[in-house]
C-alpha cells in the first residue's frame, strides 16, 4: 500500500468514527446529554482551577481522572528533566500510572518555563498527577529525585505554611501541592527509585519527561502547545503572591531581591567603557567571573571590626582591576596646570604612564619586567599547590602549571596591542582577571576539589598583588621626589579647580582655533548622545536582569559572557 492509499484509509476511518459518534449522540436522551455536558464542564473548570494549559491537555487529564475515579490507592511514577536551548532552558516532566487490573498505562507529559531546575520539573510532575487523583485516596509516588521527596515531606509535616515561603525554593508550586492535598484529603507516600536502574515504569516516566526533538540545542514543534503554567491566583492561604514581571517568584523574597540587585550591579559594572575591550570579544568567555570577584573581596565585607590593612588590599585590587590607580595619565587629566604631560618620568622614551605601564616600565633597563612577574606568579602558584597537596610530586605540579599558556613568557608584548588579542594575556592576570584554564588546571591537580582549588587561587592572587603593590610603592616614592623637585606640593594637588560665576569648571582650551558656536553645538550633541545611551543602558539592564533572573534561577558569574556589548553601547544575548 502506497502513501496516498494510507492517507485515504485514515480519512475514511476518521469520517466513519465521526458518523458513529453523531448517530450515538442522536440516540441519547437530551437530559442525559445535558447532565454529561455539565459534568464535563465541571471537571474542565476543576482542572483549570490549578493549571493553565491547552484544551487537549485538559481532555487528557479528564480521561485519566475518569479511569481512576473508583480507586482507593494509586501508584504513579514521576520524572522531570532540564534541557538547554540556544536561548533558554526548558523543563520537561512526565508521569505514568501502572493500572493493576488490566495493566493499562496512563501517561501525561508537559513542560514549564522560568526558574529552571530539575527539582521544579519533578514537583510539577507530582502536582499534575495529584490533580487527577480521587478524593481521600492513597497516592504512592515513585521518583528518582531525593530533593522532590524532601520537599513533599516538608509539606506533609508542616503545620504552618508560612515557612514554605520563607525557607524553601519553589514556594508557589509547594503551596499549591499543599492546597490540593488538603482539599482532596490525599495521603501521600514517596519512594526513592534509583535512576536508570532498569525499573520499567521509571524508564517510561523518564522518556516522557525528555523534550522530544531536542537536537543540538534546538527544539522542534513536537512539544509545542504543551507548556503548562500554575494558576496561582487560586491560592487561598496567602494574602499576596510575590510577582516579578507577571511571573510568580519561585524563591524566597529576600533571596530574590538580593539576586535582582546583584544582577543589576554586575551588569552595570560590565557595561563600563573601560571593559568594552574584554566584553566585545571572546576574552569574556575565558574569565572565571565568580572567582575574579572573590579575589577582590576574600574576607567578609560585613565584619564589625574595621581592618585598615584589609581595606587597603581591597582598594588596591579594585583600582588595579578598574584602571583607577593615580598614575600620571590620570594626574594630567585632572591637573593639567601642574603636570605638563602624562609621560612616565622613569623612562628614557616618552611613553604614557597608565595603569599597566607601572608594571611594564623597564626603569631605563633592558629586561622586560613581565618576564620576572610571570616567573614569580608561577613560583607562588607552585608553592601554594604544594602546601595544599603535599603528596603530589613537584614535577607533576610544574608540568600541569606549564600547560597554562598565559603563564609561559615567550616574547615582549605591547599592552595596547594586547587589548585587540582574541585571547587573554598575562596583562589581564596582573589586573586581577582569573582565566578559566588556570582554574581547570588547579582543580585537576587537586583531584577536582573545587573549594580547595579556589582557595589556592585566591591565596596566589593575594600574594602576587603584594608584589605588585611593592612595585607601585617604589614608583610612588620616585614620583614624589620628582614632584618636590618641580615644586608640586600635596596642597597644590588637593586644590580645587577654579570656577567662574556660572559655577562651571574652567577647562584648558587645547584647540583654541575652534569657534565658540561650534563648541557649544558639539557640547549639546554630546549631551544628547549621552542621554540616549543612558536611556538605552537602563532599558538593556532591565531586560537582561529579567532574562537572567527568570531563566537561570541562581546567578552564575560565567553567564556574563552571554550578554554581548557592542561598540555603540548596545547589548545582545550571544550564542
UniProtKB/TrEMBL annotation:
Q: What class of enzyme is it?
A: hydrolase
Q: Catalysed reaction(s)?
A: Endonucleolytic cleavage to 5'-phosphomonoester
Q: Which residues form the RNase H type-1 domain?
A: 70-214
Give the molecular function GO annotations: metal ion binding; nucleic acid binding; RNA-DNA hybrid ribonuclease activity
Keywords in alphabetical order: Endonuclease, Hydrolase, Metal-binding, Nuclease
Instruction: Give the Enzyme Commission number.
Output: 3.1.26.4
Q: Which domain of life is it from?
A: Eukaryota
Which GO BP terms, alphabetically? DNA replication, removal of RNA primer
Q: Which family does it belong to?
A: Belongs to the RNase H family.
Q: What is this protein called?
A: ribonuclease H
Q: What is the native source organism of this protein?
A: Diversispora epigaea
Amino acid at each position: 500500500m502506497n502513501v496516498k492509499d494510507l492517507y485515504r484509509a485514515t480519512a475514511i476511518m476518521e469520517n466513519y468514527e465521526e458518523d458513529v459518534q453523531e448517530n450515538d449522540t442522536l440516540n441519547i436522551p437530551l437530559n442525559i446529554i445535558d447532565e454529561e455536558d455539565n459534568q464535563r464542564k465541571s471537571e474542565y473548570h476543576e482542572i483549570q482551577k490549578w493549571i493553565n494549559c491547552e484544551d487537549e491537555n485538559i481532555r487528557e487529564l479528564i480521561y485519566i481522572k475518569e479511569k481512576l475515579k473508583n480507586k482507593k490507592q494509586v501508584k504513579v511514577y514521576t520524572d522531570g528533566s532540564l534541557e538547554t536551548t540556544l536561548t533558554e532552558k526548558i523543563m520537561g516532566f512526565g508521569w505514568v500510572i501502572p493500572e493493576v487490573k488490566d495493566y493499562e498505562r496512563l501517561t501525561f507529559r508537559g513542560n514549564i518555563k522560568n526558574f529552571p531546575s530539575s527539582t521544579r520539573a519533578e514537583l510539577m510532575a507530582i502536582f499534575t498527577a495529584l490533580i487527577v487523583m480521587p478524593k481521600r485516596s492513597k497516592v504512592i509516588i515513585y521518583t528518582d529525585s531525593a530533593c522532590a521527596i524532601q520537599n513533599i515531606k516538608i509539606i506533609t509535616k508542616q503545620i504552618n505554611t508560612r515557612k514554605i515561603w520563607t525557607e524553601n525554593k519553589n514556594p508557589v508550586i509547594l503551596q499549591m501541592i499543599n492546597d490540593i492535598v488538603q482539599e482532596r484529603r490525599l495521603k501521600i507516600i514517596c519512594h526513592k527509585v534509583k535512576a536508570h536502574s532498569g525499573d520499567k515504569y521509571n524508564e517510561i516516566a523518564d522518556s516522557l519527561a525528555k523534550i522530544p526533538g531536542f537536537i543540538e540545542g534546538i527544539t522542534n514543534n513536537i512539544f509545542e502547545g504543551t507548556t503548562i503554567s500554575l494558576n496561582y491566583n487560586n491560592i487561598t492561604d496567602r494574602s499576596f503572591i510575590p510577582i516579578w514581571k507577571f511571573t510568580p517568584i519561585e524563591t524566597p523574597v529576600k533571596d530574590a531581591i538580593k539576586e535582582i540587585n546583584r544582577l543589576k550591579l554586575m551588569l552595570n559594572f560590565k557595561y563600563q567603557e573601560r571593559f568594552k575591550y574584554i566584553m566585545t570579544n571572546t576574552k569574556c568567555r575565558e574569565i572565571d567571573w565568580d572567582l575574579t570577584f572573590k579575589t577582590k573581596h576574600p574576607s567578609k565585607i560585613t565584619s564589625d571590626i574595621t581592618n585598615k590593612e584589609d581595606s587597603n588590599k581591597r582598594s588596591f585590587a579594585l583600582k588595579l582591576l578598574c584602571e583607577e590607580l593615580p598614575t600620571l595619565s590620570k594626574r594630567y587629566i585632572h591637573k593639567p596646570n601642574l603636570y605638563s604631560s602624562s609621560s612616565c618620568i622613569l623612562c628614557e622614551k616618552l611613553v604614557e604612564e597608565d595603569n599597566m605601564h607601572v608594571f611594564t616600565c623597564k626603569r631605563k633597563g633592558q629586561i622586560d619586567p613581565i618576564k620576572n612577574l610571570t616567573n614569580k606568579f608561577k613560583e607562588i602558584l607552585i608553592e601554594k599547590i604544594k602546601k595544599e597537596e603535599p603528596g603530589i610530586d613537584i614535577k607533576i605540579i610544574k608540568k600541569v602549571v606549564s600547560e597554562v599558556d598565559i603563564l609561559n613568557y615567550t616574547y615582549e608584548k605591547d599592552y595596547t596591542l594586547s587589548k585587540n588579542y582574541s585571547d587573554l594575556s598575562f596583562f589581564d592576570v596582573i589586573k586581577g582577571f582569573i582565566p578559566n584554564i588556570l582554574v581547570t588546571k588547579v582543580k585537576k591537580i587537586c583531584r577536582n576539589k573545587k573549594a580547595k582549588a579556589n582557595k589556592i587561587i585566591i591565596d596566589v592572587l593575594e600574594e602576587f598583588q603584594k608584589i605588585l603593590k611593592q612595585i607601585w610603592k617604589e614608583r610612588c616614592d620616585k614620583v614624589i621626589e620628582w614632584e618636590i623637585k618641580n615644586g608640586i606640593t600635596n596642597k597644590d594637588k588637593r586644590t580645587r579647580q577654579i570656577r567662574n560665576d556660572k559655577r562651571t569648571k574652567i577647562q584648558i582650551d587645547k584647540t583654541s582655533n575652534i569657534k565658540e558656536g561650534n563648541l557649544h553645538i558639539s557640547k549639546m550633541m554630546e549631551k544628547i548622545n549621552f542621554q540616549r545611551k543612558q536611556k538605552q543602558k537602563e532599558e538593556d539592564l532591565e531586560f537582561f536582569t529579567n532574562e537572567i533572573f527568570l531563566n537561570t534561577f541562581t546567578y552564575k558569574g560565567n553567564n556574563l559572557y552571554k550578554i554581548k556589548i557592542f561598540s555603540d553601547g548596545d547589548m545582545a544575548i550571544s550564542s
